[in-house]
Design a protein that fits this description.
The protein is of the alpha+beta class and about 600 residues long. It has 3 domains: about 230 residues, no CATH class; about 140 residues, Chitobiase, domain 2 (2-Layer Sandwich), CATH 3.30.379; about 70 residues, no CATH class. Helix content is about 40%, strand content about 15%. It has 20 helices and 18 strands. The strands form 4 sheets. A 6-stranded mixed beta sheet has the order 6-5-7-9-8-12, sandwiched between helices. Helix 12 runs parallel beside helix 14. The mean pLDDT is about 95.
């Protein structure tokens, strides 16, 4: 009997429910997490409910196996057995590692270059963000580290602690610091250390100090900018810039929590996209600013999710595209739960809800999107694959369960086969077509750290369909005028497989040192350091190949030896230059039937055709 979970649910007015064996499409808003029958309530009291439900293909919601939250040490112990790891090719950080590695009593920690293996025990201090330290890059691939080549910036600094998520019982303290902020960082670091009988201890007190000399970055992370970037939410006081951030975030959290039900199926069916995306973005906002109002809203919405699943009258339906975002939300919780704002009861309840939710999206994916080996992939297959992989990484960091391995295997199968070979799968839209390769790159970075062959041509293809203003052309099912869905992927490529096209595009995206929050569901945390990129020669035809699988699927005549997917004519990349994008074929997934169509025409600083 899970007495603690039962107590928490009863004290908070929540029910122990069950997940039904069949999950219809989310568009129906059919309740699938429902109340127990009288017989099942009796079985719960007699501690035989798990077996009873298992025989019917059902399971307890929240997960009954979760009897305690994840164990971790909030404070980090620093001793001679700990290590400081710096980038091998960064002289400043190599020197600073020796300074940071010497404790106030003269004890010296090990100092290593980042071509070493990650130590498996003892606190590790990583110097350098994901753009320069190999181990920091892995943490960013795991969606665990936010410092990158753009943030906190040359005149900023940060400290981020990852508690037991890579190796059990090991804390990793990732630090971003520059020559300009060396002394400020060191003063703060030394003042935070506490001398104990067991050695020096650093309490968890993470910081993210944005470069004050970068007004564009500060503006992008201003509360007015951040909150204005949230979409598809009901209006409310959260939009009122005259209110305090605390007031706005409280109202936002209330509105989003209510939107999990959104008045029931007769009022609205989309109760997942706007809620879960907002949830993840609020944690991102906290991670980049350390303004606790965002973290408080994140907690409130997570508890609102639990209330929806366990208390909404009549039962809870499968959230709209829950499998798109659940892994990202779980990853955010993995970092957030180490903050004292989450009580032990909060953590046990939310961990059990998230574990049961992982079970739920796995069931949904296997029923609605069963993976077939050797086939092209569609985004509804790769969304659950990536999110199950992220969930498996979190729960396997402290639980040993064969079930978690099945979630990981779903991802392994989904990201194998032709998805590794072609730059585009079944979608023909300058939005949707980048989702699958973005998720494939995220998976590659999670696993091997080496991009698959499909990425050799992907940056060039993205360049071809990016105009002389640096904007992606919106064809197929894409946002009006411009598309940004490939940006996180391009930023990641500049870190792991840079070429002239990826570097050029990243530079255009970061013009004026602007910043956008990563995209929940397929985005990544990489951002390259802003640098001047070489101009790409223009004045010739640019074409993307009509891939063999498209030719076969559309039964293109073999007499057409060199048809193209897209053709661009570009005189240059200045606003006054000329750019024309032509589509020789149309249709395909999320595509429009723009056969032999001109998709865009720009000249003399004007957009003439969209």
């Amino acid at each position: 009997m899970n007495h603690e979970l039962l107590r928490i649910c009863r004290e908070r007015g929540l029910s122990i429910r069950k997940q039904l064996p069949e999950i219809p499409s989310w568009t129906t808003r059919t309740p699938t997490v429902v109340d127990l029958s009288p017989e099942e309530e009796q079985a719960l009291q007699e501690d035989r409910l798990p077996e009873l439900l298992f025989a019917k293909g059902e399971f307890i919601f929240p997960a009954w196996e979760i009897c305690a939250p994840r164990p971790f040490e909030r404070d980090s112990l620093l001793t001679a057995g700990c290590a400081v790891i710096h980038p091998r090719d960064n002289a400043f950080l190599a020197e600073f590692a020796r300074t940071l590695g010497t404790l106030p009593d003269g004890t010296e920690m090990k100092v290593l270059a980042d071509d070493c293996e990650m130590p498996r025990s003892g606190t590790v201090i990583l110097l350098g963000d994901s753009s320069c330290n190999r181990h920091s890059r892995f943490l960013a691939a795991r969606q665990l580290l936010f410092a990158n080549g753009q943030l906190p910036g040359p005149d900023g600094w940060s400290i981020e602690t990852i508690h037991g998520l890579v190796n059990r019982k090991q804390n990793i303290i990732a630090c971003s610091v520059s020559p300009a902020t060396r002394q400020e960082f060191l003063d703060y670091w030394l003042s935070s250390l506490q001398n104990t009988t067991g050695g020096f201890v650093r309490p968890k007190d993470d910081q993210f100090r944005i470069d004050p000399q970068a007004p564009a970055l500060a503006g992008a992370l201003n509360p007015n900018q951040l909150l204005a970037s949230l979409r598809n939410l009901p209006p409310g006081p959260w939009q009122d810039a005259s209110l305090s951030l605390a007031q706005r975030c409280r109202n936002l959290a209330e509105i989003v929590s209510a939107a999990f039900d959104c008045g029931g199926p007769s009022v609205g069916r989309d109760n997942g996209h706007r809620t879960m995306v907002t949830l993840v973005k609020l944690y991102y906002a906290y991670a980049y600013t350390r303004q606790r109002e965002y973290l408080e809203a994140f907690r409130t919405i997570l508890l609102g999710l639990a209330k929806y699943l366990l208390a909404i009258p009549g039962g809870a339906s499968y959230l709209s595209d829950y499998d798109f975002y659940l892994g990202y939300a779980t990853n955010a919780f993995a970092l957030a739960e180490t903050d004292p704002i989450f009580s032990a009861d909060d953590r046990l309840l939310l961990t059990a809800v998230l574990y049961a939710s992982m079970r739920q999206i796995h069931l949904y994916a296997c029923q609605r999107w069963p993976i077939k080996p050797g086939e092209l992939r569609f985004n509804h297959e790769t969304f659950p694959a990536l999110n199950l992989g992220l969930g498996a990484m979190y729960f396997s960091s402290w639980l040993d369960s064969p079930e978690i391995a099945t979630w990981w295997k779903y991802g392994e199968l989904a990201f194998s086969g032709p998805v590794a070979e072609y730059w585009r799968q079944r979608e023909n839209s300058n939005s949707y077509q980048w989702i699958v390769p973005s998720q494939k790159l995220a998976w590659d970075m999670l696993t091997t750290g080496i991009p698959s062959p499909c990425f050799r041509d992907i940056a060039r293809a993205a360049y071809t369909i990016t105009d002389n203003f640096g904007q992606g052309i919106a064809y197929g099912d894409a946002s009006p005028l411009q598309s940004w869905s490939e940006q996180d992927m391009i930023f990641a490529l500049t870190q792991c497989q840079p070429d002239e096209y990826a570097l050029y595009l990243a530079n255009r995206y970061q013009q004026n040192n602007t910043f956008r929050l990563p995209i929940p569901g397929w985005g990544m945390l990489f951002r390259p350091a802003l640098q001047k990129a070489a101009e790409i020669p223009c004045g010739h035809w640019e074409g993307t190949e009509l891939l063999p699988h498209v030719r076969k699927r559309l039964q293109v005549s073999p007499k057409l030896s060199c048809p193209y997917d897209k053709i661009a004519l570009r005189s240059g990349n200045r606003p006054e230059d000329q750019y024309l994008l032509f589509e020789p074929y149309g249709g395909d997934g999320h595509g429009h039937r723009d056969v032999n169509a001109i998709l865009a025409y720009n000249q003399q600083g004007r957009i003439w055709l969209v």
